[in-house]
Amino acid sequence: MTQPEFKPNTMPATQHCAKHTAKHSVKISARPVPSDLFSWDPSILLTAGVDEAGRGPWVGPVVAAAVILDPHCEVIGLNDSKKLKPEVRKRLSLEIKAQALGFAIGEASVQEIDRLNILQATLLAMKRAVEGLILRPEQVLVDGNRLPTLAQPAFALVGGDSFVPCIQAASILAKVHRDEWCEALALEYPGYGFAAHKGYGTAQHQEALARLGVTPWHRVSFAPVARRLAQGQGPKVQQVSENPPRPKSPPEVPA
């Protein structure tokens, strides 16, 4: 059996679009699978691409997005979100939301990450994103080599965010959503540098953690945060809450 050729959409754009976001509490199970480049059908129009953002950071939820692109609404410039400049990701995220047939964001909370582990929490966020779509996709393409348990046929594509447009769109929405969350967190917790490092374990973050202590949004199951809590050094270490208040959204940036 030969590998299907993937052709990016070049059809004229229309104004058909939809905006959908939702979250659901669900049980999931990880399925380790090989990269499946042969079984998915590129001719199926209602195909949802899924990708995540925020597995590595020490802070905040892990975020997943699911996107069904409109074959009559090509979004120019899609790519792996990590290869795009922040301002380009932001612009593309607005275009994706305006032109896609549907999209949804799913999250798994800090508490779920600490309870389940980061892999299981990531799959949970992915499942919530897919189930948040109002349009039911006929197949789901997930970046990576593991799949959440879904009602639809699903295929894991290692490096899918490099060549599958709907996965690229999902990677952009997930990344922009989580980056904006970190920027909002920075307003409530100044001094940590969340807007700059986005929760990753940079030297700036490590220094701030030692100086200011653990916030309610830190993942206490991650070793650097757990060590800080175990040391209990300094009066500025903050009580970790089961249900910390959600950061306020950052102010809108004028166009």
Describe this protein's structure.
The chain is of the alpha/beta class and 255 residues long. The protein folds into 2 domains: 153 residues, 2-Layer Sandwich (Nucleotidyltransferase, domain 5); 42 residues, no CATH class. The protein is built from 7 helices and 7 strands. The strands form 2 sheets. The chain has a 5-stranded mixed beta sheet. A two-stranded antiparallel ribbon has the order 1-6. Strand 2 and strand 3 form a beta hairpin. Helix 1 packs across helix 4 and helix 2 packs across helix 3. The radius of gyration is 19 Å and the shape is globular. The N and C termini lie far apart (49 Å). The N terminus and C terminus are likely disordered.
Major β-sheet profile: 5 strands, mixed
CATH structural architecture of the largest domain? 2-Layer Sandwich
* Record field, number of beta strands: 7
In the predicted model, the low-confidence regions spanning at least 5 consecutive residues are: 1-34, 233-237, 249-255
Domain count: the total is 2
In percent, how helical is the residue content? 25-40%
Q: CATH superfamily membership of the largest domain, which one?
A: Ribonuclease H-like superfamily/Ribonuclease H
The best one-word shape is: globular
Question: Which structural class fits the helix and strand makeup?
Answer: alpha/beta
Number of helices: 7
In terms of DSSP E residues, the strand content is: 5-15%
Rg from C-alpha positions? Answer: 19 Å
- Tell me the distance between the termini: 49 Å
CATH topology of the largest domain: Nucleotidyltransferase, domain 5
Mean pLDDT across all amino acids: 82
From N to C, what is the helix and strand string? EEEHEHHEEEHHHH
Strand order of the largest sheet: 4-3-2-5-7
Q: Class of the largest domain, according to the CATH hierarchy?
A: Alpha Beta
